[in-house]
Write a structure and sequence with these properties.
- This protein is mostly helical.
- It is built from ten helices and two strands.
- The radius of gyration is 28 Å and the shape is elongated.
């Protein structure tokens, strides 16, 4: 996916940058605990337009695959009527194919301008940047060059695309419960971290003992060897919990994408949501309580 900056990106970067600068100039000098969630929110505002583009691109690719199936079926019908495949492609391009329309119109114009059928299809597959279409076009080109029965090939391509779509839909439906379960487990994990940070560690700070003698409400533990002059060792549990939440959110989101769509790259949107919600929930809870 090629990154193209649009007005929405600039607006997001400007608004997010303003929030970051404001938090650093006002909240940070005062030592406010809200500075962490506000900075995270500002960074999320900057990244949100890019995340939204990623979601739109994924939806667009799904629609392209569905409309490609209709396009191939239309070509197959024209070929059955005895129309040569280049002309059948031009005639089939008159329909409405949603997100695939710009690519089909470009294919039609190239064929009308005299570009070879093979070259036009190669350009078509490259422009869509869709793996299903690329594989299907490769099969059609090879069959057309070898002089095979193009009608049988088109029907085979149609059947293949249908099967791929059916498998993906079934996998998405079967993995829905796993997605819900993954989100619930993550939110339970956040709740445990918040309880540890806000309620358990302060209670342990009141317990006398060598290990927890220096524990404070910020989640830091200081231990000293009473028999030596060794320097105290400070453990910041808050940073450890934040790191655990971010790591858990990242990999939980990637696995959700793998289960539901068959590719880890589709889990980026889930990772973004889980990491942001987890970080904001933990830091806001720490700041308020």
């Amino acid at each position: 996916m090629k990154l193209e900056l649009k007005l929405g990106h600039y607006v997001g970067m400007a608004l997010g940058g303003f929030i970051l600068i404001l938090s650093l100039l006002i909240l940070l000098p005062r030592g406010s605990e809200l500075v962490k969630p506000i900075i995270a929110f500002g960074a999320a505002v900057i990244l949100f337009p890019f995340w939204l583009d990623f979601i739109k691109e994924n939806s667009k690719q799904r629609e392209i695959e569905e409309k490609f199936l209709e396009f191939v079926r239309s070509i197959t019908s024209n070929v059955k009527a005895g129309t040569p495949i280049p002309k059948a492609t031009i005639e089939s391009s008159e329909g409405n194919y949603g997100a695939l329309n710009p690519y089909i119109k470009k294919l039609k114009h190239q064929l009308e301008w005299g570009i070879s059928f093979r070259e036009a299809l190669i350009r078509f597959s490259k422009s869509t940047k869709n793996r299903v279409i690329t594989r299907s076009i490769t099969i059609i080109i090879e069959a057309e060059q070898s002089g095979g029965n193009i009608q049988d090939v088109l029907e085979g391509v149609t059947s293949s695309v249908v099967q791929i779509k059916k498998i993906r839909d079934e996998r998405r439906a079967n993995s829905f419960s796993q997605i819900i379960q993954g989100y619930l487990v993550f939110f339970i994990f956040i709740a445990i971290m918040v309880i540890l940070q806000i309620f358990l560690l302060p209670q342990l700070a009141d317990v006398s003992g060598d290990v927890f003698s220096g524990m404070t409400f910020t989640g830091s533990v200081t231990t000293t060897d009473l028999n030596t002059d060794a320097l105290p060792i400070a453990i910041n549990f808050e940073n450890i919990f934040i790191f655990l939440i971010l790591v858990q959110g990242l990999f939980a989101g990637l696995m959700v994408g793998k289960f539901s769509e068959g590719s880890i790259r589709y889990g980026i949107r889930h990772s973004f949501i889980l990491m942001l919600v987890g970080y904001l929930a933990f830091t806001l809870s720490a700041a308020i309580f």
